Amino acid sequence: MRRTILVAMVLALLLIGCAEEQKEAKPSPTPAEEKLKVAFVYVSPIGDAGWSYAHDLGRKFIEEHYPVETKYSEAVPEGPDAERVIREYAEQGYDIIFTTSFGYMDPTITVAKDFPNTVFMHCSGYKTAKNVGTYFGRMYQARYLSGLVAGSMTKTNKIGYVAAHPIPEVIRGINAFALGVKKVNPDAKVIVVWTGTWYDPAKEKEAAISLLDQGCDVIAQHQDSPGPQQAAEERGVYSIGYNSDMSKFAPNAHLTAPIWNWSVIYSYVVENVMAGTWKSEEIWWGIDKGVVDLAPFNKVVPEDVRKIVEQEKEKYLKGEVPEQYPFVGPIIDQNGNVVKAEGEAMTDEELLSMNFFVDNVVGEIPQK
């Protein structure tokens, strides 16, 4: 009898323990409840209206349209700080980490080696790994279209270009812009001034002023701040923005801008990770995919100029030209050398390593 009571008590205690254990345990979330953790590392402030601002619009898009949780760090310098920030996100268990500046390339590769189950996507670089892909847009296509506008609107035939760093991406953009200028105005020159900055509003505005003092009546740029736009607005001349529609900073000067739509690529990556189909690849998409485009035209841009731009844009959309267009011969460098013969297109490898100026560019490429 006593044994029966003892067994009953033990069973009761076991049942109570199991009940308590079930009460305290948290149910595993179903796949529908799980959110993908996605991090972004930005080189400049997101309020810059430029590069990081455009990337952050893409971040907001995926947060709104996909089951993701996002976080970002802004104004992270290229170098040791970048590696620290990237590593912290990996340690916190983020599923995807987008590193959005060329100088983040080596830190991304370094951290990725220690976190093989994390997906890393580096923007504008060329190094990959099993868990590291690269992505970029063929911005030179939109640069070319904006050059058509600038070449049509200049009266002095001097167009200023405030350039960031002498890397292939920037050089390629200058040349594409200059080829657009040349197509509509063979007499115009593109004058380049280097700042060695991605985001320094005062320095970039000062560089634009130096170009205005040389007689330039259209100012283009490859930086994140609207400083050059503001300089043009103050002088009563025209400007071509970059990254996003910068017209609010220069409502009278701003003619248009080559702009980014990063949401196209961010959506693609998130969808593939969610589906388990992601693989390392080198994404380089253009106008036909919607990654790059032009901002709306200022009302002062004549209808005939708009028509020229739209006709050239249609060539990309309809596949009438290779993706490398306008880098199709004849292409002649500053020294009169034929880089590409009539009808011959440059390869992607040649575009990605570009280190020369075409013949209507005035300025030198600094040697590292």
From TrEMBL:
<dbReference type="InterPro" id="IPR052910">
    <property type="entry name" value="ABC-Purine-Binding"/>
</dbReference>
<dbReference type="Pfam" id="PF02608">
    <property type="entry name" value="Bmp"/>
</dbReference>
<dbReference type="GO" id="GO:0005886">
    <property type="term" value="C:plasma membrane"/>
</dbReference>
<dbReference type="InterPro" id="IPR003760">
    <property type="entry name" value="PnrA-like"/>
</dbReference>
<feature type="domain" description="ABC transporter substrate-binding protein PnrA-like">
    <location>
        <begin position="36"/>
        <end position="324"/>
    </location>
</feature>
<protein>
    <submittedName>
        <fullName>Nucleoside-binding protein</fullName>
    </submittedName>
</protein>
<keyword id="KW-0732">Signal</keyword>
